[in-house]
Amino acid sequence: MKQVGVLGLGRFGLFWSTVLSHGYEVSGWNRSPRENAPCRPVSLEELCRLPAVFLCVPMRSMRETLERIAPLLGPDTVVIDTCSVKVRPVEWMLELLPPSTPILATHPMFGPESGKESVTGLPLMMHPVRLDPERYAEYSHFFSSLGIMVVEMTPEEHDRQAALSQALTHMLGRSLNVMGIDDTPIGTLWYRKLLAIARQVAKDSEELFMDMQILNPYAADMRESFEDAWQSVTMEIREAAKEGKEPKRAT
Asked: What's the domain range around 47?
């Protein structure tokens, strides 16, 4: 069985190790030991000599991680990131890793909660930054064999779309949690969906939330557009209330 490594055995790294174990012998390394991890514990040096290393570290730790592993990598070791933002991490990998190091950018659009029952039908973004077609096809075929929907997309297009599909969703969920919404016996279907978003977002770290808002180059425009839209709708309501407008009565 082919081998891969997972660098970073936090909540997502442990989950990702389990996903990879369906087709690979998985080794893992973490700053502090992890008990009952679904992978073989190895030293960082051994991990970096495996055929492929998946980086499952917070985005704010990526530069430090890349600088640390760069001199340890095997000549053919593929470095694969899993960051929620793509443009910046890809720039860092090209800048800090050896010129000959193969690089694959990925973003699983799911995690320990959304993928705990099944990963079938869930999307995974992939882009061969510096990777030959044969090795790219290997990983693409593996994920597809698990029922994951592989979407090839450039880092720029990923971040542009993720500013809405992910950063906006997390911002809404965080705002609802700050507001303090809670369950109610008369909650409509759509209210329950909003509550589910808020509860899901609450399980993610503040670091992840801030990183996807700050490091995504398109997130600031998204927030500005949303704020403008919110103010426009709010103003419309205020103007209607000021004019004493009421719904027309049926005759």
From this structure: 3-153
